[in-house]
Hints:
Residues 187-214 are annotated as: Disordered. The protein is an all-alpha fold and 214 residues long. The chain has 3 domains: 1-38; 43-103, no CATH class; 104-204, no CATH class. The chain has helices at 2-12, 17-23, 29-34, 40-45, 51-57, 59-69, 76-87, 90-100, 140-161, 168-188; strands at 105-106, 111-112, 134-135. Helix 5 packs across helix 6 (59-69), helix 6 packs across helix 8 and helix 9 runs antiparallel to helix 10 (168-188). The N and C termini lie far apart (56 Å). Mean pLDDT is 79; it is low at 210-214.
Amino acid sequence: MLRHLQNTELFRLGVADTIISKRFNRRSVAQSYEYDHRSLAEDLDQIEIPLDIEIMLGEKASTVARLIKGGKANGPIVDAFHHIQATESDAAAYEYLRAEADGFHATPYGHCLNSFTVDPCPKHLECFADCRHLSATDLPENRRNLIRLEGKFKLAVETINTRPSTSIGWRNQLDHAERRLAGVRKLLTTPPGERPFPDGPDLSQPRERGVLDD
């Protein structure tokens, strides 16, 4: 338990994961993230915004403001915020943020920059599956989740390959697992605040309906 506490405190102090891993004689940085117990809320608490702005924004929009100020988010909402801030004023930018805060979500894998107020997420929170609205973070809990997923998808690909078949179903299963493994790995290597899939489909737009749709 003491090692876990020391590990977490080093992360809190901003010590690099490589140095922490070396300090505890670990074989990979992934092991250090397994013992990092900081929360998203704890990270955001370290980012300050003016009290009057926080009161005006409310809880959710204040969280978005902290993420933007901390450079931990990117995407359409963030771009619009910075544009309004540069061309109009801080007050106008925060007013925009207050109106658009519903379009920002903290997911287990990163920050979602789309609004699903009316319809549920069409990716079912599989953000790593080529979603253009996903923004990478450097939050330990996101990284832990992705590292676990990487292991699961890698095992799935290996398992499927040990049972070769010429059926379409087998190929579809393999493609599904390989695409998600590639997505997770791309997200893991994407710098914080950047979008790993900027050219992915825009899921905020209605899907074109085909003749077989109801």
